[in-house]
TrEMBL record, chains A, B:
This is Transcriptional regulator, HxlR family. Residues 13-113 form the HTH hxlR-type domain. InterPro entries: HTH_HxlR, WH-like_DNA-bd_sf, WH_DNA-bd_sf. One of its GO terms (molecular function) is DNA binding. It holds the Pfam family HxlR. SUPFAM superfamilies: Winged helix' DNA-binding domain (SSF46785).
Length: 113, 113
DNA sequence: CAGTATCCTTTAGGATACTG
DNA sequence: CAGTATCCTAAAGGATACTG
């Protein structure tokens, strides 16, 4: 089947995969906050830091990143509950790539029409 | 107004801006094809190369990139019409950043759960 | 050939109410 | 506090027909 060729081509493209990983509206803000914090941060504090994200979207994106192994989630079985999120070592390896795209944008922002 | 603070924070974040630039479903495939081709390529040939994109989506994304100055469009006023697209010098400067994210994905793909 | 125009479906994401 | 559940709107993108 012809279409499979290019559909696969797109799915197999590492750039496309990377974009899919960080293309959510709140993905970068969340990752960025966890990276620069670099220590456990509670759900509520994280939410306030990247406001005006909704609880639903924050939870969803955190679950995705946790699944990927980019962040960790620690539940303290207290009442009221306490949950801390933290960037993982794998997550930290994103830094150079993220810096690279940030630097491109800083350098070429004025040239972009 | 409180919300402006973080809305602005997101809009001002160069990483977020970069993602917005290349987050369209066909953005990377189009850019990638024009970059590796590195010479003028006709609309139809481009469409076939990144099939199964639709004409509408291809046109829309090409217009966006042209507007940004990342690609150029040259119309030959013939019948039938001939239009050639090509990556610009500005567009070529994306290469290191795109390589950076591609390399991250290649190196960490197996660790990603 | 290189588009537009139109219609349609799917998905992302926001608002709000509720809960262990 | 840290979520779920539900409803809703807007935007992205696909299919198809038409045109200079």
């Amino acid at each position: 089947m012809q279409n499979e060729k290019n559909t696969d081509q797109n799915f197999n493209c590492p750039m496309v995969k990377f974009v899919n990983l960080i293309a959510g509206k709140w993905a970068i803000p969340i990752l960025y906050r966890l990276i620069i914090t670099n220590e456990p941060i509670r759900f509520g504090e994280l939410k306030r830091a990247i406001s005006p994200i909704t609880q639903k979207e924050l939870t969803k994106q955190l679950r995705l990143f946790e699944q990927k192994g980019l962040i960790s989630r620690k539940l303290y079985p207290e009442v009221p509950p306490k949950v801390e999120y933290q960037i993982t070592e794998l997550g930290k390896t994103l830094k150079p790539a993220l810096n690279s795209i940030a630097n491109w944008m800083k350098q070429h922002e004025q040239e972009l029409r």
